[in-house]
Amino acid sequence: MASTEALLPVTSLQDPLSESRSDQIPETRRRRPIKVHLAVYSGLLLIALYVTLIVTHDGSKAEIATESRPRMAGVSEKSNDGVWISSDDRKVEAFPWNNTILSWQRTAFHFQPEKNWMNDPNGPLFYKGWYHFFYQYNPNAAVWGDIVWGHAVSKDLIHWLYLPIAMVPDQWYDANGVWTGSATFLDDGSIVMLYTGSTDEFVQVQNLAYPEDPSDPLLLKWVKFSGNPVLVPPPGIGAKDFRDPTTAWKTSSGKWRITIGSKINRTGISLIYDTTDFKTYEKHETLLHQVPNTGMWECVDFYPVSKTQLNGLDTSVNGPDVKHVIKASMDDTRIDHYAIGTYDDSNATWVPDNPSIDVGISTGLRYDYGKYYASKTFYDQNKGRRILWGWIGESDSEAADVQKGWSSVQGIPRTVVLDTRTHKNLVQWPVEEIKSLRLSSKKFDMTIGPGTVVPVDVGSATQLDIEAEFEIKTDDLKLFFDDDSVEADNKFSCETNGGSTARGALGPFGFSVLADEGLSEQTPVYFYVTKGKHSKLNTVFCTDTSRSTLANDVVKPIYGSFVPVLKGEKLTMRILVDHSIVEGFAQGGRSCITSRVYPTKAIYGATKLFLFNNAIDATVTASFTVWQMNNAFIHPYSSDDLGVPSST
Amino acid sequence: MMMMMMMKVMMMVTVMVSEGSIIEQTCKETPDFNLCVSLLNSDPRGSSADTSGLALILIDKIKGLTTKTLNEINGLYKKRPELKRALDECSRRYKTILNADVPEAIEAISKGVPKFGEDGVIDAGVEASVCEGGFKGKSPLTSLTKSMQKISNVTRAIVRMLL
Q1: Which CATH number is A420's domain given?
Q2: Complex ipTM, two decimals?
Q3: Which residue ranges are recorded for the region named Disordered (chain A) (predicted)?
Q4: Which residue has the higher pLDDT, A337 or A480?
């Protein structure tokens, strides 16, 4: 395995193809000794060997490691999943979870199986009137394991129907797991599916599968190619660092091309293969792209976006009017990063527009600044959109998952386009079809002074769609700009400024969702405006889950990021609240934050919604609409569902 | 000359020791070197294991400690009946470690998707902490839960090396 080579002593086999060697053991000591000292050295060598034997034999006396720096320290600050405060000696009092509180957590309109564990979205596609969704699923437990492909269909990406399991580990080449993969439509409209199998010897390989009956719109049964695997880890790539093949795209020479993420030492890479039949492949010597120090790239995605139009593009589209996105899921940090750049079809390489925020760089762009991973897009030829799926795991303890019997949901599918105003980032937005869940609504226009919290009376507050526009009162702004004592705060971030309780001149302000009457539990979703460089206003968009629950055995991070607000734009926010998941979108989807929260009091009829303004100097006007959201009533497919019409 | 000799000896020892066993190299990068080394050395597979193998050995230790703690919990029901509620919670939490965390971690690390192993290992520490917290400072299980937290931290560090 490539990853262990850095730990082995210098005498072990180094991978001859590895591009970077991080384990440079100084050999100078061996080269410098003059002949005169050789005898002395050999003598001392024997003494040293003897000393070593003594030292290693009595393990408890080993004094060398005075500095054992826990490698997770850095990660727990950055990665959402690393923030387990209880990992140290602090005592965490158990919250008495009961079935009433736990069963409330189940979502009403996000995709999740009836029970057990789910992770990555797989092979999403539209075919013969149905949207298909496959997913990594454990049929036996509420934790990862025994992975198969779950399957569901929908006419509108919202109302899902559970279908039987699509693929199980029944071959030697996927005996240990039918893992993530992607679908490609061939020229004749037929579907091929490439997926990763974990073989009976734990090697990661790529396999080909296709529908057994193309005339079946439900694509119930799948056939695995008899010649599988079609790809095995190439020389220089670890047997367990080769997974998640992408949808293929056509090259100008008429071949199909795919990319597969991997790593070489600590460099994240994306391998390139060409094929005409999806059965035999030519591997390119060059990589689609690589970025040092980003670790293993999982679930790589590669697709074109239009520079001018707001529709999605088929994966094979190329041309002067097009940019290409590379996205990868960083195994190290559990963050999905993407970058926008230019693809060169003739040599199968891609170059980022801005190398300082290349794929996987921690300060680079993310689809989502909260809990969101293993995401995958597909081209929806039905409505000409590129749609994004993302896996949203739990942030609670596994004991709770086992007790409630399930773990993980999918984000609401989002359309993805290039931001035609900034040209530097993507814009995501929940699919239009979600509006079909909107029931009654209430419209509000409120002006809230500094330091106020106002209850928003909407009745039930566990299933909501909120669209809001904020304006900061101009008098205050002028005052702010005239105030020379205010320092430009370039290092501002949601986490480092005490979350929503910190009070600045111009923020934070926004909504507190899933709150109880006394605000003992609440999840603020908000803007925080500060003065940036050249007197321009900087806006960050945040979600603070630190007070979302009284329970302490869950992770409660503060998420967020800087969001570009262009001249003349108002501050806009959309929030989808669905029991234990909150999805926030700022500036029409320029910045998105998904959070998982587990209130113990702010549940059922006790859930409330508040509007707040914690700013010191600013008054804020909020103009917003709140919709009650219906259940999507996701259920197993039955013959009654055959006549379901598509939504317009 | 004597100083030179001494320095050479020290240099050689340092070079020899720092190029020491895989166990030592690995354990240096964990929060508890001594615990790490003693656990791994106590297993016959330790001396020939790669990083994955070392992680699996420690997960085995977690499993053993879980069983031991569950036995202790069972014994306490009779001796300390007033602690029933907290013991019930601990029993539930430790059964999660045994039935969910450990199998998940073993499968994930064996199959080369270590992040799920990391989840399981972290959770073992969380469940132990939660169990401990239920006694509100008067726990009869402190040394066992503390052990679990420590082993969980060390194991997590090693699993992260696989990412």
Answers
A1: 2.115.10.20
A2: 0.88
A3: 1-28
A4: A337
